[in-house]
Design brief:
Strand order of the largest sheet of chain A: 3-2-1-4-5-7-6
CATH superfamily of the largest domain in chain A: Dihydrodipicolinate Reductase, domain 2
Strand content of chain A: 15-25%
Number of strands of chain A: 14
Order of helices and strands of chain A: EHEHEHEHEHEHEHEHEHEEHEHEEH
CATH topology of the largest domain in chain A: Dihydrodipicolinate Reductase, domain 2
Low-confidence stretches of chain A: none
Number of domains of chain A: 2
Shape of chain A: globular
Structural class of chain A: alpha/beta
Largest sheet of chain A: 7 strands, parallel
Helix content of chain A: 25-40%
CATH class of the largest domain in chain A: Alpha Beta
CATH architecture of the largest domain in chain A: 2-Layer Sandwich
Oligomer: homotetramer
Chain lengths: ~350, ~350, ~350, ~350
């Protein structure tokens, strides 16, 4: 099989590193270009010693060059920047898989409200497909612009979409209390993220209005067939490198049982390689999924309060970012969806 | 001032170690007896090298001897055992401060339901005072049997009691999602708690029916003036040694604001040395309270969902166990409540 | 290509888990049997939820069955036990790759001195090849019994063998100060290894006479062409899951330079996929090699003291155990040595 | 007793925080001034929420004001800066306890070689006393300028000085392999110190020529009665917040035994509150000394190689910095040396 020629724009962060880890081991991929303004000219091994045996160098992001060399380009850039790059690539016929948040929101107002600026490429929004493959697989196959789903949203939407669709959970009163490892903040150099500030620490942040909130609510509303859903999403930072655990509490719409909830989720994901529904009585654990593309889900039901309690874990850098992006690439290029992800 | 003669029964676990750390530095305390069946005869430094310069040895728990030597005895024993020891000490006129769960529940049925056995000393229950000093200070002063509040309960009750009393939060729909460091499991030797199983891990457990649940619900009901409250309490294990973070989500009973919630809590705890209400916009962090007896509380209000969101942290071994027990001792013996705790 | 049928005896520890992780992803391997006395009958997902999607179960170790089913068997057993199992497998024509220490020492006296019992299968010793592929590749290819090199020894021998052979370091005064993550202790349930005893801790142990010492000295002596070498090897336990860092200090035999040392190591390992010599000025870091089969080496020279200082890191479960064992299997079966290891 | 009025210049780093923790609990101290250019005007609770209940604010460093208010000033500043501040304070009759490295080296050449600039106040050097109280207690009592000993040096010198003085270890071939928690790098915001770069990592750095090297060698030479000693000191960064473990390997000058080494150290430190010599067979562990001012020492002797192996641990922020500085203050002001340190 002819290899897919791949470019990665903004490859020097943690999502970039994870993407490169996956792509270097992907038998049908050849990485042609990796860019970083900061490290342009540096051999990859200087930035990521783990990749010292690879031969590629970082370059300045050169659009014409990428168009010449690549079939698909991953954008691992800050929001705002990603949208600017997407346009010329799409026009030139490349597939674009954006790991940033730029094309996830349908609403320009929400984008402005949560990201503090006008959307940089609103004309592209209608082409973008939300990159949660288990629920948008067919659209992904046809699209040239994938807005790969965010990390917290992936962990929350994966169990929530089937439960809302089944009507067993109310669209009101949904509460998602999540924990993320520190790589979730990116490779950001700030006092809050130095080791002694994070180790032996656990803290909530952005208890109201986290940037992932509108993305989660948008997709929950789609699943529920409603115009709008509002939830509480409360992220916490905990001392580990990789992983997200979301504990989600829903009002059951009627008397039910853990077995019933379990069977809805199991049926939905029976044929999915990357969603694991744990046996009843077991709860999701970040350590089960680290360095994998799997979303692992545990189910409980509290008959006293009529609440359904879901625990859902992913590796934020894999299923929550780069692994999911590769999964979308595999779909687009008609590969086995698991290629390079096991 | 004459020193208080203190005994610690079951001193070889983490609560025992923390209790000894505090008591060795307490200027009005003399530790007379520390017991451990496992380590009887061993110098304290063999079990806790940190205390090698101290001169005391572990002994078998000898009730007569403790009665002879001590004014107050701390019970740092598994539930069930504590109640058996309490009786002779109380009859002999000692003050008993129990760190176990044995005397926390008013209901014998709940005890049996959650602890799986009949209560070992039901005749003592009426004498027991719930050891949450900020809310039971006067009762503690008069009592000979303190059922020192549990770790998760302390973190949840401290913010919840004033909010329920003020009527600003509903008694329905309360959700407490908590995280605990691994010392919360005690010095238990089980595969689930070895380092590689806990590090780079985060997991919920006992999502339904944790043993601390009836204790929390009992005291919430007292605060609300109700017979009964049911809540969801979902504990998680996270990779740190010490600390609990409880994020609690309440339905507001009416339109309100973070400012209003903040002022209720600030007013309640204005004169308390061990409760810290953070300025608005800041969230509680375990690292702020480790090795202290402080409960730190952050406040948010989500006007979209009418939910009040509280983050509350303690050191599980200090305010959640041994520090709080010493605080009760200080009250009983008319000392400055902060003595030995700063 | 016909798949290699593989058995793993003693698959429920950390080395076993890592071996399964590698073998499940190895395109030329089919895992036929995994044994565990403790978990016999359990599906693999009950012991390692990470493998829930796999279909295999643990069974009692049944020698006849393994002989029927397998071409090669990995022994991930405690020392003593491994040697007993090896015999029937070898007689039946299977290849045996032993991850334990049972066949690493040439000297029965050393075995008895360090392991406290007579060697259980001395008649097999002459067949055993020391499983450090970079230095025993041709012997491994021909052998039916591989004594896969230990974790600390791999980290120390990889840089030391070429330096001794080159004569640039003295065989006297070698000091290896190593740090290991807690998985190095195996999945052992003991109070010393529970999370709160290891986190925020760092401690030396077995400062004299660690069991890996005779293995290291034996292979150093081979490299130096001497009957015997004595060194100081001082292991430490540090709070991380995976990885070993060995800092090794040698007396230079003559005035030299870091450049010279670097060129000796670079020349030796120029064609090796799994040894990385860092550029001068960089030091080895466990995080560069976690979840890889690479030994990464940093070089310094102190002209003031005439000491050569090497830092050498591996993942103790991969290059230090299961990855190295798979590397040997690849050699035996004429596969690309990197198969399944990248 | 009249309280000692204390100023802390540069109080916003980790050493500053630890100093404040100790001084707030010191019954004979009143903190009058804390300075920080960055946080001038901020309440202490904004920088260190742990101290929210304290009433002091950070101010710009105002020399005249500090002279007016204080009896003693601690300098917790970067090297270079400290020396500039010391001069006016000493001239005004204040006691100065410097936690930086500025006054530790007797040799201006070494200062320039290792710190890259001329010494900023060479005229003060002759007044400075090296702040290792166990060995310079009488000089500290009389001095106005304490160059408080560095963290790595404290861990290495405490066991080494008595052994060199006793002549049982050679001054040649001394090797110190140390590990430090990340707070040892200060509250420095750099990519190397963010959580995901340090967690699951362990790495050597500055294997040749660390800045603490000349300080260690200077004091070893004093102990040995020599003009000069050269050693190898190899520091490593490991994933914990607080603590240093130094493993030191010496050539014995003659046949000896662990018992003999142990008795030399035990005799030297028999009356010292802050040095703990472990029983033979036990090794030092960082967790035994965290949040204490103790240096804990373990002893081994390898008869095969004639090497004495010492493990020595401290809390880098307490005995390695601020606790030791308070110990010196207690000596200067004729207090019990343990005041505020237990």
């Amino acid at each position: 099989m002819k290899k897919i020629n791949v470019g990665v724009v903004g490859a020097a962060g943690y999502s970039g590193e994870e993407l490169l880890r996956l792509l270097f081991n992907h038998q049908f991929v050849e990485i042609k270009v990796i860019t970083s303004r900061k490290y342009a000219g540096d051999h990859i091994g200087e930035v990521f010693p783990r990749f010292m045996e690879q031969s590629i160098k970082f370059s300045e992001p050169n659009v014409a060059n990428i168009i010449n060399e690549c079939d698909v380009v991953f954008l691992a850039l800050p929001h705002g920047l990603a949208a600017e790059y997407a346009k010329p690539f799409i026009e030139a016929g490349l597939k674009v898989i954006d790991i940033s948040a730029d094309f996830r929101l349908r609403s320009l107002e929400k984008y402005k409200e949560y990201y503090g600026c006008d959307h940089p490429a609103p004309e592209l929004l209608s082409q973008a497909v939300y990159g949660l493959p288990e629920h948008y697989r067919n659209d992904i196959k046809e699209s040239s612009l994938i807005a790969s789903a965010g990390c917290y949203p992936t962990s929350i939407l994966t169990p929530s979409i089937p439960l809302l669709k089944a009507g067993i959970v109310s669209s009101k009163n949904i509460i998602a209390s999540s924990m993320s490892g520190v790589s979730g903040a990116g490779r950001k150099v700030a006092v809050d993220y130095i080791y002694p500030e994070c180790n032996e620490s656990a803290r909530a942040y952005a208890t109201i209005g986290h940037r992932h909130l509108p993305e989660i609510e948008q997709e929950l509303a789609v699943a529920a067939g409603l115009d709008n859903i509002v939830i509480n999403f409360i992220p916490h930072l905990v001392p580990l490198n990789r992983g997200i655990n979301s504990t989600i509490i829903y009002d059951a719409t009627r008397e039910c049982s853990a077995e019933e909830v379990h069977s809805i989720l199991s049926a939905t994901y029976a044929d999915e390689a990357f969603v694991r529904i744990l046996p009843l009585g077991k709860q999701a654990d970040i350590k089960h999924v680290s360095f994998t593309n799997i979303c692992e889900i545990g189910v409980s039901y509290d008959a006293r309060t009529k609440k359904i309690i879901i625990t859902s874990v992913i590796d934020n850098l894999t299923k929550g970012a780069s692994g999911q992006a590769v999964q979308s690439m595999n779909i687009i290029f008609n590969l086995n969806e698991k290629e390079g992800l096991l």
